[in-house]
Structure formats: C-alpha cells, structure tokens
Amino acid sequence: MISWKTVEPDFTPRDLGEIIGSLTFLDAVLLARELSRHAMVLFLDEARDGIMRHVGARREESGGLLLGTAAMPSRRTGLSNPLVCVTDVVPALDYEGTSVSLRMNHSVWTSASLGIERGLMVVGWFHSHPNLGAFFSGTDRATQRQFFAHDYSLGYVVDPVRDDHAYFMGPECEEIDHRDVITLPSLSDLPATLR
C-alpha cells in the first residue's frame, strides 16, 4: 500500500521583502512600483541562449526545465506579484516530440538535480511550437496546472522559426507581457540575494 507524506520542499521561494530590502533605495522603489502592477521575470542571456540552441535545432516540439530563483511577496511588502529569475535551463534530452506535441521523460528532473544542488530551484518549464506561433494550448495549460502550479511557476513557449515568444505564470497561466520580461547579460547583473 502506498502512503503519502506531506514534507516541506527542499527549496522555497525567497521573501520579496528581503530582496527589496537588499537594494538601494531607488532600485527598491522602482522594483516595488513594478511589482505592485504585475509579475516580473528576469531572464539571463545564457539561459535563453541555451533554450534557443536546444529548440532551434529541432523541427519537432522540444523543451525542458527552467532553473533559478523566485521571490514571493510577504504581508510586510504589501505587494501581490512574484519576481522570477531564470538563470539556467535543463533541456529534456529524452523526449517524444512531434510537430504538435511533446512528452518529456522523467530524466529531465534527474538532470535538474545538479542545479538544485547549487541552490537553484525549478521555477518553470519551456517548450517550442515550431512554426505554429507562441501560445499556450489547452494541453500546455493542463501541464502547467498539474506540474508547475506555484504562483511563481513560469511557462515559456517559443516558436524558433517565427522568433515568437510567450510567457505564462502560475496555475491559471496568466500571460506575462513581453515588457515585463527583462533579459540580463550576466549573473552579476542580478542582486546578490537572487543569485
């Protein structure tokens, strides 16, 4: 007989109040202003390049996991939106993909353990829609709700043929405006509390 135990996760999102408190006054005010309006995503160039190398080389759908850090608001911030930093990716190398579907094998989670050992957490997933456009299908939404159901969980879909990108956050798959996704050239551009 299988028995389920509720255990605390190995990694939890950071406190957004601590992140904001570690910034200069002006940076803290600007970040708080943005997060009062919408969620934000910081995406490291190297991570995006890794995604494009993986999905751009294939005609079928492919994907993987997004690693990084997340910061969630606490009562003391008065904010309600998360901040997600994508610093690394784990491409699914063992998968079944067609031009309109993707099934990633569990080995991608095993591969993610190396990043987790470095203190990163799984902050979401990515996949491609080659020459179909960047959107979340009904299946994509079900996958997000089932496997990436945290408020900070990011779903990123890219059409490498049309150079189209879309971002969805949380179990309700709220679309994130492209302007709220900031690409950073280097890890040193992140506040130390988010590395």
Task: List the defining traits of the structure above.
11 strands; 195 residues; Cytidine Deaminase, domain 2; alpha/beta; disordered N terminus
Question: Describe it for me?
Answer:
The chain has helices at residues 16-21, 25-37, 45-56, 107-117, 138-147, and strands spanning 14-15, 40-44, 63-72, 83-91, 95-97, 102-104, 121-128, 154-159, 164-169, 174-176, 181-184. The longest helix is centred in the first third of the chain and has 13 residues, at 25-37. The protein is globular, with a radius of gyration of 17 Å. The strands form 2 sheets. Strands 1, 2, 3, 4, 7, 8, 9, 10 and 11 form a 9-stranded mixed β-sheet that branches. The chain has one domain (14-185): Cytidine Deaminase, domain 2 (3-Layer(aba) Sandwich), CATH 3.40.140.10. The protein starts with 13 loop residues before the first strand and ends in an 11-residue tail after the last strand. Helices cover 27% and strands 30% of the residues. It has 195 residues and is of the alpha/beta class.
